[in-house]
Design brief:
- The complex is a heterodimer of chains A (47) and B (146).
- Helices cover 77% and strands 0% of the residues of chain A.
- With 47 residues, chain A is an all-alpha fold.
- The two termini of chain A are 25 Å apart.
- Chain B is of the alpha/beta class and 146 residues long.
- Chain B has four helices and five strands.
- Classes of the chains: A mainly alpha (47), B alpha/beta (146).
- Chains A and B meet through helix 2 and helix 3 of A and helix 1 of B.
């Protein structure tokens, strides 16, 4: 398990990585802008 | 006289090039992306963390990366929050999460460590205060290996 989390991204993951990072940055932005409860309601319903 | 409120967005990871593009470093990658979008660099290093300051939606925000290795993430964050007088409840922690499917982003609050060594260190360092109300941004990835 340790090797897995410390491992590099697979090519499939790599292709999604920029979007994942952007989504997570958006989540942080929402928490700052709207507070954690509203951010959770908006973000956690997405996927 | 009013004092400025700060929020700390802490991305967890391990320092060094060896780990820079690994699953465990997603927290670093996210705060780096926020800084890049804001046009700023991590230009301060203190308390075993590198950090910078910006404004998001009119709110003063620190972005930080602990440099102490994942399983010792708590002490640098405790020292930063103490120095800048940031309540633990105003800290957002960005980290990988083995319980989520790759690509999923979830915001959670009042959660345990889920076996994550960085969160475990933060919980141990901050005590129950952090578990009872931090504005955690729990991010992303990593299904367990098949």
């Amino acid at each position: 398990m340790t090797g897995y989390v410390l491992g590099s991204f697979t090519p499939d993951e790599q292709s999604e990585l920029d979007q994942v990072i952007q989504d997570a940055a958006t989540a942080c932005d929402l928490i700052v802008a709207k507070g954690v409860v509203q951010a959770m309601n908006q973000m956690n319903a997405r996927r | 006289m009013t004092s400025t409120r700060f929020i700390l967005i802490a991305g967890l990871g391990n320092p060094g090039n060896t780990y820079s593009r690994t699953r465990h470093n997603i927290g670093f990658l996210v705060v780096e992306a926020i800084a890049e979008k804001a046009g700023i660099a991590f230009n301060k290093t203190r308390f075993d963390a590198t950090f910078t300051r910006t404004t998001l939606h009119g709110q003063e925000v620190f972005l930080a990366k602990p440099l102490s290795y994942m399983n010792r993430s708590g002490p640098p964050l405790r020292n930063l929050t103490a120095y800048f007088k940031i309540p633990a409840t105003d800290m957002i922690v960005v980290h990988d999460d083995m319980d989520l499917t790759f690509g999923a982003v979830k915001i959670s609050q009042n959660r345990g460590s889920g076996g994550h060594n960085g969160i475990k260190s933060i919980a141990e360092t901050f005590g129950t205060q952090i578990l009872s109300g931090y504005a955690s941004g729990s991010v992303t990835l990593i299904p367990p290996p098949a």
